[in-house]
User: Fold this.
Amino acid sequence: MFICLYSVYMFGKNKLKIFAALSDSSRIRIVSILSKGELSVQDIALILGQSQPRVSRHIRILEDANLIIKNKEGGWVFCKLNRNQEIEKIIDFVCERKESDKDLSSIDFKRLLELQHNRVQEANDFFYNQYKDQYYIDSINKYNDQSIDEQIVGILSKNIKIPFNNLIDLGTGSGKILSLLSKLSNNCIGVDNNHSILKMARARICESELSNCEIRYGDITKLDLAKESADLTILHQVLHYFDNPDSLIEEAVKLLRKDKYILIVDFEKHQNEFLRKDFSHRRLGFHDEQIIEMFNRFGCKLIDKTKGVSVKGPNIEELIVKVWLGMKGK
Ligand SMILES: C[S@@+](CC[C@H](N)C(=O)[O-])C[C@H]1O[C@@H](n2cnc3c(N)ncnc32)[C@H](O)[C@@H]1O
Assistant:
């Protein structure tokens, strides 16, 4: 009730749609959990304990009131808050009130945390099994062919003075990027949260005598590395495993010193739904506009990108691997 009165007070009668949208407790719960980041409709339904059609109806009303933005990606729909200037205050107000209301919020946030925890667990099991069986390495190598490596080295050499000081590779896996780029940087750190895979990365570093490289165990969604310490942060084939890729870019940018660089290597937006089922992907690649929007939101600007390398194969609709380079504070 108080929230409704507040919305009228703040925005006047022309915001009746916002007023109506926020007059329902399920929709307030949805706005509140989305304040923690982007989520798919099926996850929102799981958290709320409601059917997908019911949640979709709420989502439609929130979208109609301009409170959230929907992004259809293959068979899934992702939702995020529409944080524009006009409605930012009302969203913050709703979320603050919801969080302070322990009874209402604790169950939703607990479920959200459980869901995120299970996802990490699933991803860990997936990566471990796939790496262990070699199958994953082979199939990923198909995408990471030499010409992509050439594009990465090319875009860095063209835009950055070599050697740079500190490179941090987020979700380093078996350390492929460290071995590719160790010659371009004085110090390199690779971070991953999968102990088994990190063993492979350490073995690779040892074998190739990459004395300027170091491997650390860590969760790239909440890093405890020093802020503003890196000249280059890299997310190589990592973003598409996350419902909320924005949070990774935010973390990667926090690590950068001003005027330094973030490199994303990932798929151009595609329609290969099977990658979700068979390879645990969450997002079906990214449009340039999505990357630019995320860069801008966290204080970076896109300064270069590659045309991409096309990957074709049986049962694969064309996949393009692209490289985007951003700069902080430009
Ligand atoms: C597809 S692999 C890419 C590995 C490497 N960047 C490459 O391209 O060779 C994704 C990596 O992200 C790691 N990862 C996933 N979630 C993570 C998290 N929350 N924190 C740290 N690493 C994570 C996985 O363990 C896996 O090694």
Observations:
- The two ends are 44 Å apart (CA to CA).
- Residues 7 and 19 are 6 Å apart (CA to CA).
